[in-house]
Amino acid sequence: QVQLVESGGGLVQPGGSLRLSCAASGFSFSMYHMSWYRQAPGKERELVASVSSNGGRISYADSVKGRFTISRDNAKNTLYLQMNSLKPEDTAVYYCKAVNMITFWGQGTQVTVSS
Question: Could you read off the pLDDT of 61-85 as tens digits, one per residue?
Fold first, then answer.
């Protein structure tokens, strides 16, 4: 059974940090391109960051460059997103996505940035 389970979301003040995790099971994680997406209320889901299967290629949305860091541990089948200097506009549900020949999505974790 394929599973992507996000965790680490929560409520944080502006300027704070959170680390999201996405635990994968049921498929060959190390062969999949992984991404983080987010969806704010009333908005479309948007790509935040991506990492290639071996971690060699990484990309970020302009809105998070310099603040967020995506990483993966293929030995632990886990994807991470370190989020620093958080802003209220980062508030959204964050999803992880796995892509190879097929696509898997996690269920999402809520991140709320508010004072």
Answer: 999 999 999 999 999 999 999 999 9
Instruction: Supply the DSSP string of 40-105, one letter for each residue.
Output: -TTS--EEEEEE-TTS--EEE-TTTTTTEEEEEETTTTEEEEEE-S--GGG-EEEEEEEESSSEEE
Q: By three-state DSSP, how is residue 27 classified?
A: coil
- Residues 6+ positions from 75 with CB-CB distance below 8 Å: none
Pairing mode, if any, of strands 10-12 and 109-113?
parallel
Nearest to 67 by CA among 47, 90, 45: 90
